[in-house]
Amino acid sequence: MMGPCHPEIYQFDVLDSTNTKALELGERGAIHGSCVVAENQTGGRGRLGKQWFSSEGMGLYCSYIVRPDLEPQDYPKITVLAGLAVAQSLDEVAGVNCKLKWPNDIIVNDCKLAGILTESSGLSLPADKRFAVIGVGINCNQQLSDFPEELRSSVTSLYLAAAKKFDPITLVVVIRTRILELIHQLCQSGLHNIIERWQEKDYLCGKTMRCVVTTGEIVVGVAQGVNKGGELLVIDAKGKSHRVLTSDIRLAGSSDFT
Ligand code: BTN
């Protein structure tokens, strides 16, 4: 299993979480660009401790191990980059128009198509031991009835959006190529270009939302888009600008706004 001299795709029928397996393989030295794919997950993990609903054989569940030449404090930039890489890949392969809901949910037709959970390991260790895992969950070939009832009003799939079925492994490879290209770009020339592309896909900009900001306050305001560092800004009713913490964002008009 270990010791590939080129990035491998490790395929499994079932795992609890591809992120957990990728963290394990990363600790054991899996190289930059290696990835773990499972047909099904029994304990798929989402952001903020949530579960990620995984339906056997119909979704794409994969985790990329990346070893960018970055200082530990720059690792959060990988989260921003990962959203763009997935959105661009899905636009290209499926002919959809993905939007990015900060920090990195992928939205099509106002519904969630994909989610990303980025985790890192060994950040306090020497550079050759550090790595990040980019976990990508894509609703691929599901019909609406394949999702639990409580999710049906807020999710979509590539099949629903593009009216055809997709081969998950083809997507895994396209996304990997895009992630590696953007990491190369980030390490060579910084986040600037990536942020510009990200801003073109910003789903939240101009929308009224409730969120927790960096001071810990709960603020209702209008999203102003992301700044050069990839932080989301929100302006409150008094005109004061705040930086949003990575946390649950509730949109005005949605059932969970209050
Ligand atoms: C989110 O939107 O909250 C992030 C969801 C990330 C889910 C993917 S599925 C593949 C990988 N393995 C996991 O356990 N989680 C990520």
Radius of gyration: 18 Å
Assembly of the depicted chains: single chain
Coarse shape: globular
Strand order of the largest sheet: 1-2-3-7-6-5-4
What do the pLDDT scores average to? 93
Largest sheet: 7 strands, mixed
* Bound molecule types: biotin
Number of helices: 5
User: Could you spell the SSE succession in H and E letters?
Assistant: EHEEHEEEEHHHEEEEE
Q: Any low-confidence stretches, pLDDT <50, length ≥5?
A: none
Structure description:
With 258 residues, the protein is of the alpha+beta class. The chain contains 5 helices and 12 strands. It has a 7-stranded mixed beta sheet with strand order 1-2-3-7-6-5-4, with helices on both faces. Strand 4 and strand 5 form a beta hairpin. Helix 2 crosses helix 4 and helix 2 packs across helix 5. The chain is globular, with a radius of gyration of 18 Å. The chain binds biotin.
List the helices and strands and how they pair.
Layout: E1 9-15, H1 18-27, E2 35-41, E3 59-66, H2 77-94, E4 99-101, E5 105-108, E6 111-121, E7 131-139, H3 158-162, H4 168-189, H5 192-200, E8 208-212, E9 218-226, E10 232-236, E11 241-243, E12 250-251
Helix pairs in contact: 2-4, 2-5
The structure holds biotin (BTN).
